[in-house]
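Need tokens for this chain, all 125 residues.
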Amino acid sequence: MGKRGPAPKPKSEHRNTRVSVYFSDDELAALDHRRGGRSRGQWLREAGLGELPALVPELNREAWVDLSRVAGLLGRYVVAIEVGNAKGMPSSVVTELRDQVQQLRNDLLGIQVPDPDSDEVDDEG
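Here are the structure tokens for all 125 residues:
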């Protein structure tokens, strides 16, 4: 039976140096507020290495949630048109609108999705 778990990291990726830092109560509260669901150590490591994801304003998150319902309803409308239960607009128009809503949702969170119609070719590999 083989070994369980992930493959060991290369020696160059082993974390063997500890850095300790002291915070005041106010600083620690600010850190805890900023780190969200990450551990303190993970957040400090990412912040120190400039690898933190962009912060998403609460208003954008709320709009993203609201638009998820819109995108879902548009998807259901497309299906209703295609099976003949709804009329008045071609399904391609509603599909395009649904795709635009999805793009807006991605933009609200700062998510970059490659365009499948793009002519760009990945030269790596």
